[in-house]
Design a protein that fits this description.
mainly alpha; Methane Monooxygenase Hydroxylase, Chain G, domain 1; 84% helix
Length: 125
């Protein structure tokens, strides 16, 4: 596989991770708005649980971003069309699989959170 193609793929993975982070920030805002009027302990506990899930996912994203950026730098340091190597290709595939998993998990999670917010009364728009 061509070095430039892999570098573009890694940039795409980083954009996907940024998208998840932005979505989580929006959910945090919705949670804050929801908690302003909350009097039910169930909602408060649910929001705390969601916040912890956000923190856990954020940590996973940061670690994965660091790995992807490190691989990206190592590829950019390769001179010319030097062979990329099997190890780098395997890392790229592993990171791609991890980002795909996070994306799918995030989309399901986001839909569930949004549905709960809508069903529990007011929606923060």
């Amino acid at each position: 596989m061509n070095k430039e193609v892999i570098i573009l793929e890694l940039a795409s993975l980083l954009r996907s991770l940024d998208f998840i982070q932005e979505g989580q920030a929006f959910i945090k805002t919705k949670l804050t708005d929801k908690l302003e009027d909350a009097t039910d302990l169930t909602i408060i506990n649910w929001a705390e649980d969601i916040h912890q899930q956000i923190l856990n996912r954020e940590l996973a994203i940061q670690l994965l971003k660091k790995d992807v950026q490190q691989l990206d730098r190592s590829l950019k340091l390769l001179s010319g069309n030097k062979e990329i190597g099997k190890e780098r290709l395997e890392k790229m595939k592993k990171y791609k699989d991890q980002v795909n998993y996070l994306e799918q998990e995030y989309l399901i999670w986001k839909n569930n959170v949004n549905n709960y917010i809508e069903l529990s009364g007011t929606s923060a728009n």
